[in-house]
Design a protein that fits this description.
The chain has 9 helices and 6 strands, in the order αβααβαβαβαααββα. It is an alpha/beta fold and 253 residues long. α3 packs parallel to α4.
C-alpha cells in the first residue's frame, strides 16, 4: 500500500467511524455512469471500461450491507442505450448478463429486474428471469437491476397496466377518472411494494437524472460524485451517506 492509498484508507475509516448508520438511507438508487470515459482516460477499450464497472458492483453492495441499506437499484442499461450500434450493444449486454449471473451466484442478495423485459434480447431476458428465480427466497439485500429501463417508459407501462386491470373489472374510463390518484399508478410501477429511494447517487460528474426513477425520486436526496464509476471507492460511498445524513429532508416543502 502506497502513501496515497494509506491516507485514503485512514480517511475512510475516520468517516465511517463518525457515520451514524441509523440515520442512513434504506433505499439507494445508483446511476453507474462514466465507464467509457474511465476507459478512455486510462487507454483501455470501451468493453474493458464496462467490465471494470461491472466488477465494482459487488464491492459496492458489500458497503451497502455494512451500513444498513436494504434496497439498491442499479441502472445498468437505459432504453436509450438499446439504440446503440450492435458492435457496442452486444458486448455490453453480455457484460450485464455476466454481472447479473454473478450477483445471483453469490447467494447473498435477492435480484429483481426493473425495466421493460420485452425490449431486451431473448437471452438477456432468460438470464434476468433465472437470476430472479434463483434468488427469490433470499433474505439479503434486495438488488433491483434496471436493464432496459426508462423513467417515462415505466410510467407509461404503469398507466397501461392500470387501464388493463380496470378494463378487466368492467370499470369505465369515466369511472376510473373519478377515482384515479397517485397510489393507483404507484401500485403498477416496476418497484411496486418497495420503498422509494431515499438517496440517488450518480457518478462521473453529470448532474442530472436522465429519466432515472422519475416517479419514485420525487422526494429523494441526490448526490453527484465527480469520480467515474469504475473508480468509485468506499470513501466516495461514505461521503454520500455522510452528506445524506447531514441534510434535513423536507419531502417536497
Amino acid at each position: 500500500m502506497n502513501l496515497r492509498e494509506l491516507v485514503y484508507e485512514l480517511y475512510s475509516r475516520r468517516v465511517e467511524h463518525r457515520l451514524d448508520v441509523s440515520q442512513g438511507p434504506k433505499h439507494i438508487g445508483v446511476i453507474l455512469d462514466g465507464n467509457r470515459r474511465w476507459a478512455k482516460a486510462g487507454g483501455a477499450t470501451t468493453v474493458q471500461g464496462h467490465r471494470a464497472g461491472a466488477d465494482k458492483i459487488a464491492e459496492m453492495l458489500g458497503w451497502c450491507e455494512e451500513t444498513g441499506v436494504e434496497v439498491v437499484t442499479l441502472w445498468l442499461l437505459s432504453t436509450d442505450n438499446l439504440d446503440r450500434p450492435a458492435d457496442e450493444l452486444v458486448p455490453l449486454l453480455g457484460i450485464i448478463e455476466d454481472a447479473v449471473t454473478g450477483l445471483a451466484d453469490a447467494g447473498r442478495w435477492r435480484v429483481n429486474h426493473v425495466g421493460t423485459m420485452d425490449l431486451l434480447p431473448s437471452h438477456t431476458q432468460h438470464v434476468l428471469k433465472e437470476a430472479e428465480q434463483a434468488t427469490h427466497a433470499s433474505t439479503g439485500l434486495l438488488v433491483n437491476v434496471a436493464v432496459g429501463y426508462g423513467g417515462r417508459q415505466e410510467i407509461a407501462d404503469a398507466v397501461r397496466s392500470l387501464l388493463h386491470e380496470h378494463a378487466g373489472r368492467g370499470t369505465s374510463i369515466e369511472d376510473l377518472a373519478e377515482i384515479l390518484d397517485v397510489e393507483h399508478i404507484a401500485e403498477h410501477l416496476y418497484t411496486r411494494g418497495q420503498p422509494d429511494p431515499d438517496l440517488v447517487i450518480r457518478t462521473s460528474g453529470e448532474q442530472r437524472l436522465s429519466g432515472f426513477m422519475l416517479w419514485q425520486s420525487a422526494h429523494s436526496e441526490y448526490y453527484f460524485c465527480e469520480v467515474f464509476w469504475p473508480a468509485f471507492r468506499k470513501v466516495d460511498f461514505l461521503r454520500a451517506l455522510r452528506d445524506y445524513a447531514a441534510r434535513h429532508r423536507r419531502y417536497g416543502a
